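Researcher: Here's a chain I'd like modeled. Treat it as a single chain, no partners, no ligands.
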Amino acid sequence: MKNLLLLLLLAAGAPARAQTAPAPLPAPVIRPRGIVLMDTTTARAIAISGTVRDDRGQPLPGATVLIKGTQRGASTDAQGHYLLLVPRAARATLVFSSVGYATQQRRVGKDVVINVVIKPDAQALQEVVVDYGAPSRGYVAGSAAPALQGRASGLMITHAPAPLPYYRPARPEAGAGDTYAHVAENAFQAVQKEPLSTFALDVDNASYANVRRFLTEGQLPPADAVRVEEMLNYFHYDYPAPPPASPDPVRISTELAVCPWNPAHQLARIGIRARSVETSALPPANLVFLVDVSGSMQGPDRLGLVQAGLRLLVRQLRPQDRVALVAYAGAAGLVLPPTPGNQPEAILGAIDRLEAGGSTAGGAGLRLAYATARQYFQKDGNNRVILATDGDFNVGESSDAAMEQLIVNERESGVFLTVLGCGRGNLRDARMETLADKGNGNYAYLDNLAEAQRVLVAQFGGTLFTVAKDVKLQVEFNPARVAHYRLVGYENRLLAAEDFNNDRKDAGELGAGHTVTALYELVPTGAPQPLVDKLKYQPAPAPPVTMQQFITNDVLTVKLRYKQPQGANSQLLVQVLNGTAAPVAQASADFRFAAAVAQFGLLLRQSPQAGAATWAATAALAAGARGPDADGYRAELVRLVGLAQGLGGAGALGVR
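Model: Modeled as a single isolated chain. Structure tokens:
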């Protein structure tokens, strides 16, 4: 009996001796309910990012990056990128591994970007059998080579006695758990009945980054996740800028060409460009970081990504800028009072101390953030709340209507709003878009650290400094030239005709250097294929046009209204589009690329208005209009079209 007890004690104690006892956590320094803030004097977590490639220079998706001696790690995305928060980074070592490749270790030290190349392992280039969880095992069929023995992160690799049928595990529906506002595509309007088209400008570009996330993960996005105007406005176009001496911070340009997806129609492009402002010339910034640290924000692609992005932003601050940090979970708390930009360590320390856990009192967090911004309001400065969240509010105001009313009340203070969305599976995209639209702000989705760098660093002025607010367009069509028209996108930004002259009507905001694009598909008057045949039993209508309309050759007239950032009265700009439609091949590169982006969006939405569009034609049109493309964003779109084409065929992964 004693021997049996001894054996049991030894068996129970073996695992304990085989594991290293975890280091005690540092004591919390501030702890509002639901928020855990760690003392960074002993455990500063540094965001380490990089790319894992194979020996041919190709990105390696699905590679594992682990902190040596721990179970903490990350996997690379479809482009080989990874992001990992590493405590005590100076002494940490990262272990890079992937099935079929030799493991590599790298000491972190002072590096924050670690790119590695891992080479194939000669002994690993054999059949690999993947175990998706004990006790059942599955085998990859189709090879007679001996199986690799050993283990990899999340995998069990064993000998396969014989090839067995392989069944691909079911994939979740694309966007399952996320919420998107329904988009009912704009229909064609008859110019005789509806000569005016009115809408608010939209500089949000969250939809494109979210679409990219779906495609790189091997799924076509849900149709309602695709907002064509946000895909268009993700890209910068070389539109004419306002002259330096002009009192207006924006300028209109227009272009007309044959519609690429329906050659019987024409495509009118309206471009808006805001004045650029050098970062050094921007007014002082009064920023409040409002960070959701609820339980739904756990994970490196959520709170970890937000922390890494905000760290990048802190490095752009000037001494005259001030930053405060508010965190919210079950309750809201002021983590960092307004702090000058020349004290980056204090700001970075507050960001690093955030940890996720608890419910989500979004309304309380918003009220505290706006109150903090108002308390330190800069009359001639840039006053803004930067909200980082997945939008999953469940304490206090949680309905879209309640949150919208809260934002409408708060925006009257003159404080603008930037919303940074993140996460998946419970992404409340519709709510975050509403908050940005109603809060005089913009909405971006962070799918990786590169996107955070683009939004918060490369486009620092455009994202965070408004040069014109309540910007809206009204287009009048000449019935002598246009029988029907259709606005491509902007379905959730439409306004009544009378809203254009109503200065109390909220509209969109333009940041420094922003470009905005709107496309109209036009059916020319007298087209050989009219949308509606002539009526047989109705009296012939009176001639709809005057001789003057024929003489002027106007296609349409664009009117734009805007207000200064702290102004109450709008200013009016007018631009006329005339002339004939050029062949697509003779249109500007910006026109052709914008048309390709719109066509891509129509295909992703499986739109009945896509006409003769194909994936191949879209890729060719975009590739031929890339231009200089210094940042590679246009080349990326071409690659995404190729991914979508592969996913759209028979047997494609993912569910629409």
